[in-house]
Design goal:
Number of helices: 0
Strand order of the largest sheet: 1-2-3-4
Helix content: under 10%
CATH topology of the largest domain: Immunoglobulin-like
Number of domains: 2
Distance between the termini: 79 Å
Shape: elongated
CATH superfamily of the largest domain: Immunoglobulins
Radius of gyration: 29 Å
CATH architecture of the largest domain: Sandwich
CATH class of the largest domain: Mainly Beta
Length: 139
């Protein structure tokens, strides 16, 4: 706290208080720096691939998702959910991104030859859900 003549200045965390003494009355004015506040936006990139574009019935098929932030930096610890959609059947699996931003899970192929299985991958980052779809056709 500094006292300069009739003015009292007290510095406080990025703002300051200016007080002026008039006889026995202290009048205070709070002055704070004002800056526009930008809305926080989540930006990132999600990619998804399957381990085999044409697996056979009862093969083990994996989906791999990779997530990076707006600086192309991998993000660790994000939950991935994959929904596998084939004619007459929908199943899910999940994983968590590692230090490389990669998450993986797998299912046994139950679709029959010639059927297409769509895999919808979702990851939520900073309250925004990213979605990617990939697919494969059973041999």
């Amino acid at each position: 706290m500094e006292y300069k003549g009739r003015e009292l200045v007290k510095k406080m965390r990025g703002s300051f208080v200016v007080g002026v003494t008039l006889g026995l009355v202290l009048v205070g004015l709070l002055v704070s720096p004002v800056a526009p506040v930008a809305a926080a936006t989540a930006t990132g990139h999600l990619s998804a691939t399957v381990s085999d574009p044409s697996p056979v019935f009862r093969a083990n098929e994996a989906v791999t998702a990779t997530f990076t932030d707006s600086n192309n930096t991998p993000v660790k610890g994000l939950k991935m959910k994959a929904t596998w959609i084939s004619p007459g059947r929908t199943t899910t699996c999940s994983g968590v991104t590692n230090a490389d931003g990669v998450a993986q899970c797998s299912r046994t192929v139950k679709a029959t030859s010639g059927q297409t299985v769509h895999v919808l991958v979702r990851i939520t980052y900073r309250r925004h859900t990213y979605k990617r779809e990939t697919s494969f056709v059973v041999k």
